[in-house]
Design goal:
six-stranded mixed β-sheet, 7 helices, about 25% helix
Length: about 260
């Protein structure tokens, strides 16, 4: 049986319900992890989501900022969320599916504009968050589980994960320090980088095209900020990966596009 898991930073869920429906209709993910929902739990559009065929809808959000959600077509065995860096800013949710796969949905802090933790508290928070993720991934139980880690991790670690490595090397999201932390995260949990499992590291791979420059998508000035990682137990079951670029060309789009993986379990 194939299970399709997708991740998408929608950059305001209520503004993009039509986009969400179009994507779910066309690609039919069984599990859809959302980031930057920007809606407090009391106003989450649960009925709208359920009308799209998702019977289990989990969310952890706040007004105007951050927020994560996991939408599942079927029931889940369990769900949980973890507070990172002693700051409950709604950046994590997890579910265990009936087939035993754990899906962890993350929204890592963006880090602000200045790549110096002494000058920029937001960048310091981002580094601390990634360090804490590494410590979590290093727990012996993690490697033994069937885990899919997805989300907007806000790091483009490889030279080919950005449109111009030399120009962007000192930009937050592509600094050497952040790339090293991503490498440590993958190593700590013995994670397979699903995107690079299917697309060789010498080829460009992007999931985000910024708003600041209007022609960023047309000129393919992209970054790979969204990721799917899988533990070794799931590596043999990875069957398909896709970056759904079309959504970036829709009217008033999110600056991120969905990534999806098919697991044959």
């Amino acid at each position: 049986m194939t299970t399709r898991i997708a991740t998408w930073n929608v950059n305001s869920l209520r503004q993009r319900l039509d986009h969400l429906k179009a994507f779910t209709d066309s690609h039919k993910p069984d599990v859809l992890c959302l980031q930057e929902t920007k809606v407090q739990d009391s106003e989450f559009p649960e009925d709208d989501i359920k009308s799209m065929g998702y019977n289990t809808v989990l969310f952890h959000g706040q007004k105007s900022y951050n927020g994560v959600a996991i939408l599942c077509r079927n029931s889940v065995a369990m769900s949980d969320r973890k507070v990172w860096c002693d700051k409950d800013d709604r950046r994590h949710l997890m579910v265990t599916l009936p087939n035993g796969v754990q899906v962890h949905n993350f929204y890592v802090p963006s880090g602000g504009p200045v790549p110096d933790p002494e000058q920029n508290d937001k960048f310091a928070h981002k580094l601390s968050f990634l360090e804490e993720m590494i410590s979590w991934a290093a727990e012996p139980s993690i490697r033994q589980e069937k885990i899919i880690l997805v989300g907007d991790l806000n790091v483009a670690p490889l030279e080919t994960d950005v449109w111009n490595h030399k120009k962007l090397l000192r930009s937050v999201g592509h600094t050497l320090r952040e790339s090293e932390l991503m490498a440590r995260l993958k190593s700590a949990g013995d994670f397979t980088d699903v995107g690079r499992h299917f697309v060789p590291p010498d080829q460009p791979l992007y999931s985000w095209w910024g708003y600041r420059y209007k022609l960023s998508f047309a000129k393919d000035y992209g970054w790979r900020l969204d990721h799917i990682l899988a533990t070794e137990a799931l590596r043999p079951h990875l069957k398909h990966f896709e970056v759904v670029k079309d959504t970036r060309s829709w009217e008033k789009p999110s600056d991120h596009v969905p990534n999806l993986v098919d697991l044959d379990l």
